[in-house]
Specification:
43% helix, three-stranded mixed β-sheet
Length: 314
């Protein structure tokens, strides 16, 4: 049996699919399973990831577990929130007796300051490494390509994608399917010993301007543009979108670490940390599907607006 946390998310759901396709027994934990059909074949447990007893029960008798701290962008004091969940995970690992852990971390998790939302993942790596007799692989992926999907409404409405990282700064971007593939392999082949770190940096290094231009070509919007905005403007936008002020500040701090080269300085690209999915492949599949769906929603809203307008004819 393999236990997967976050099985309803971008990465966890793909891990489960990989494992099931390879004949593995899989156990998942979530508060709700809105698309349970996608996890058909797995043991689905509804419960609270804040409960040591629940997480411990899920981990018992498992050959390996995938752990992650679920993101909560509405949390005030995000590092406190991350540490609270992290402590539950660590205690459950210890009490369950599981000895093989694949932990989702992040690029920059080796740094003790200046990385905003990643600081809680730094704490979690140290917390798990302190557990006696547990073999661990910390996966440190870079910026998720899927993060770009949140900017599709502005791309459709204004032909622009907004961020705070300057458009000419080199940034590594990885598809979540590549993270999931590596995690699934490690979970099925838990031969790793001691404490290990693996970086996942995507197919090649790009700037945001280059990435958005490539995506624009794929959806026949060659004038699609990346626009860098001040941190204050991004902060106001994020808070308006429902993200807590503390989380918005932490996200801006992480972007600042990418902008000034702090993150890139922590790792060098090589064959081992270079993954398969290119920005073009991501664009032709995940991005194009999401972009066209937003286009349809935009047309529907425009049609509804016109239909509901009062008749102005005499």
């Amino acid at each position: 049996m393999i236990f997967v946390m976050g099985a309803t998310g971008h990465i966890g759901s793909k891990i489960v699919s990989h494992l099931l396709a390879n004949g593995q027994q899989v156990r998942c934990l979530a508060r709700h399973y809105p698309n349970s059909a996608e996890l058909s074949g797995a043991e689905l447990i509804e419960g609270d990831a804040n409960s040591v007893a629940t997480v411990t029960d899920c981990m018992r008798h498992c050959s390996a577990v995938f752990t992650m701290i679920p993101p909560n962008m509405k949390a005030t004091e995000p590092r406190y929130y991350q540490n609270k969940i992290g402590e539950v995970i660590a205690e459950a690992v210890e009490e369950s007796g599981v000895t093989k852990v694949v932990n989702l971390s992040s690029i920059g998790a080796n740094l003790e300051s200046g990385t905003g939302i990643v600081l809680g993942l730094h704490d979690q790596e140290e917390r798990l490494n302190a557990l006696p007799g547990v073999d661990i692989v910390h996966l440190r992926p870079t910026f998720f390509m899927e993060n770009i999907l949140s900017g599709i409404p502005s791309m459709v409405a204004m032909n622009r994608y907004f961020g705070t990282i300057p458009g000419d700064i080199p940034v590594d971007m990885v598809a979540t399917q590549d993270i999931a593939a590596r995690a699934a392999f490690l979970l099925m082949n838990p031969t790793f010993k001691s404490h290990n770190v693996e970086y996942l940096l995507g197919e090649r290094t790009l700037t945001f301007s280059e990435a958005i231009q490539e995506l624009g070509e794929i959806v026949e919007r060659p004038d699609l543009e990346y626009v860098a905005v001040p941190e204050s403007e991004m902060r106001n936008y994020l808070i308006g979108a429902g993200i807590s002020a503390d989380s918005a500040d932490a996200m801006n701090e992480l972007s600042r670490a990418a902008s000034n080269g702090t993150l890139q300085a922590t790792v060098s690209r090589d064959k081992l940390n270079t993954t398969a999915t290119s920005i073009e492949e991501f664009g032709r599949t995940t991005f194009k599907t999401a972009y066209m769906a937003e286009m349809e929603r935009s047309r529907a809203r425009q049609h509804q607006s016109l239909s509901s307008s009062p008749d102005m004819h005499p």
